[in-house]
Amino acid sequence: MEKKLNLSFDEKWEKIIACDEKYDGLFYTAVKTTGIYCRPSCRSRKPKRINVEFYDDRKQVENAGFRPCKRCQPEVEHSPHAGLVRDVISFLINHYKQKLVLRDIAAHVGVSPFYLERLFKRETSETPRTYLEKIRVDKAACLLRSSGLTNLEICYEAGFQSPSNFYKIFQRLKHCSPNEYRAGEGKEL
C-alpha cells in the first residue's frame, strides 16, 4: 500500500491550520521546540511554521525522537477499519488526477466495491467519490491562489473531466466561483 503523499509543505501546513480530520493518519506534524507530534486535526495551539516538520508515518516520527501529543493521541487507532480507510484516502490523494471509479479503488485495497463504499461512508460520513471531489477542489483552490494557470488548465490539472463539473463542484464546496475565489472574494466555511 502507498504511504507517501504528494502534498507540499504548504499544503500540509494548510491542513493543520484548518484542523482537517481527512488527513489524520496520513501524515504527522512534529514540533521541534516541544518534541511532540500531532495529528493534522489536533486542536492544540498551532506552532510557528519554522518549528514544524512533517512525517508520513508514526514509526518515522517516533524514531526521530518525538513523543505523541496527549490531547489528540496520534498513536491510538480509533477504528478497526482505520488502516483500510487511510489506504483509500492515500490512494485518492495520490491519484486524484486520474479518472477513478469505485471498482478500481476497491481493487487497490482488496475489497468489493459495495463493501468499500459502505465502510468508507460509515467511517468518514462521505462516499469515496465526494471525498475525491473535495481533494480535487482543495488542489484547484491551491492552484488558484498560487499559480497563473487559467481556470480551464486548473480544471484538468486538478483531475476534473469537464469544466462544467469543475465549476459546479467548486461552487458547491467553496460557496463561490473559481474566479471569485482567485480574487479573494470567496467565503470558505
UniProtKB/TrEMBL annotation:
Show where the HTH araC/xylS-type domain sits: 86-184
| UniProtKB keywords | Activator, DNA-binding, Methyltransferase, Transcription, Transcription regulation, Transferase
Q: Which SUPFAM superfamilies match?
A: Ada DNA repair protein, N-terminal domain (N-Ada 10) (SSF57884), Homeodomain-like (SSF46689)
Q: Taxonomically, which superkingdom?
A: Bacteria
Q: What's the cofactor?
A: Zn(2+)
- What is one Pfam family matched by this protein? HTH_18
Spell out the protein name for this chain. Ada metal-binding domain-containing protein
